[in-house]
Amino acid sequence: MNKLFIIKIGGNILDDPAQLKSFLHDFAAIREPKILVHGGGKIATELGNKLGIESKYVNGRRITDEQTIDLVTMVYGGLVNRKLVASLQQHHCNAFGITGADGNMLKASKRPVKDIDYGYVGDITADSVNTSLLYFLLKQNTVPVFAPLTYANGIMLNTNADTIASVLATALSKHFDIRLIYCFEKKGVLMNVNDANSVIRHLTQKKYTELLTQGILTDGILPKLESAYAALGTGVKEILIGEAADLLKNIGQETEGTLLTLT
Amino acid sequence: MNKLFIIKIGGNILDDPAQLKSFLHDFAAIREPKILVHGGGKIATELGNKLGIESKYVNGRRITDEQTIDLVTMVYGGLVNRKLVASLQQHHCNAFGITGADGNMLKASKRPVKDIDYGYVGDITADSVNTSLLYFLLKQNTVPVFAPLTYANGIMLNTNADTIASVLATALSKHFDIRLIYCFEKKGVLMNVNDANSVIRHLTQKKYTELLTQGILTDGILPKLESAYAALGTGVKEILIGEAADLLKNIGQETEGTLLTLT
Asked: In B75-189, which ranges are continuous DSSP H helix?
């Protein structure tokens, strides 16, 4: 099977012009088929503040009300996604911006209200992906660039970008040998959160479960690892977590970051 | 050749929830291949006012400065385009939102500075269109929904939606029997601008030139007719101008509006 890189970036890259420039250069240089999934960044919060839209939290969880979904549709689906695509075109990378609604690409379920009403938040599984259309776009040598937005019943929904990357990886694992790469602000999964160099080079599911039990893994990394192991359990063979610069410079070689595998 | 409808809508529909709802219903019901091109609407101006971004004009012409291109990229490329696509999905129409940067679909030239610097404005011709990718998307039974945005040299540019519709029509006229439909707030091209019912039912290029010479045609309609006759001169056979409700209810039949042809 052909290789396919699925690369997720978040606010630490989107909010830093120098890092973003470097990332776009490295990403465009990858010669294999590839997909970019981007998160949000500070700009939605900043714009929200200017417009008097408050970020709302219940029990520490962010709530997406009607004003907020419009805000993130504008910022993530408009400003961030469109500018990323235009910049990648300048790097000779034929990017194509996509939200879940485009071509019915990611049809979500609005998160059901139990203890908390999260508002306009979409949950997805690998069955949510319009795999055939996505596969065709890749075959046309375009590079899909996903905003962290899905949809259900005619409305846009906020969806975690890590989850989108993981779900796309699972859905496409029938067609490609997937390498899923989560770029974040640390060099990898850390054995000691206070030591930036304590990178765990290789994490199997057995070791992951052990570290979980021992309480070694901290809050920040847990949702990422949960998405990752969900994908590994359903056809994705390898996942890399670390700093974009490290992971993309030597793509295809295991030089930096944490490599996650099932066994 | 197969028929293809290219339909352009502007602020009068986008800003009116009842009209928009009715339009989306009628548009989704068209069974032939189709493309939607949308303009702006009041929301960009309203949001701009809230953010303290002033609309700038020189000699009556709108200038797109850096703040304004970011604003319209958010609003037209984000909020308006994404919500239109999600709404169309709800109507079982497999819409796919597109700006000029996506898949290099509309590569523009930034308008050169002569007497006026229009700022971030893109000029396009039929050669600007990535026709093969657009054709492929249509063959996948998706419905492209174009925001009034193009790009050049890695940056987004503001581009008139009438022009985009006209340029797409010309580019696709090799592959389809195109019917280009400009929806606007009047019942058609009027013989007397003060009489809403003085619709000219059929306008040939000869008659158009005569009316131009006689000064019958007023400012508002001139750019639209200029785009239209440019398209008719390069392969598009028929163009309809009028109210969306009239034109879409009986699509394919010449019942309402103004029909433009070369001869």
From this structure: 81-90, 131-139, 161-172
Contact, A239 vs A258, CB < 8 A?
Answer: no
A positions 23-62 inside 8 Å of B (CB): 47, 50-51
ipTM of the complex: 0.95
Q: Name the helix (H) or strand (E) containing A248.
A: helix A244-249
Cβ-proximal residues to B24 (8 Å cutoff; 6+ apart), any chain: B84, B87, B88, B91
Amino acid at B111: R
Q: Where are the domains of chain A?
A: 3-260
Q: Provide the whole-model pTM.
A: 0.96
**How many Cα neighbours within 13 Å face the side chain of B236?**
29
Contact check, Cβ <8 Å, B87/A151: no
Per the CB < 8 Å rule, is A103 touching B78?
Answer: no
- C-beta atoms of B86 and A101 within 8 A: yes
**CATH superfamily label, A3-260:** Acetylglutamate kinase-like (3.40.1160.10)
Express each pLDDT in A66-98 by its tens digit.
Answer: 999 999 999 999 999 999 999 999 999 999 999
Homologous superfamily, domain B8-21+30-176 = Acetylglutamate kinase-like (3.40.1160.10)
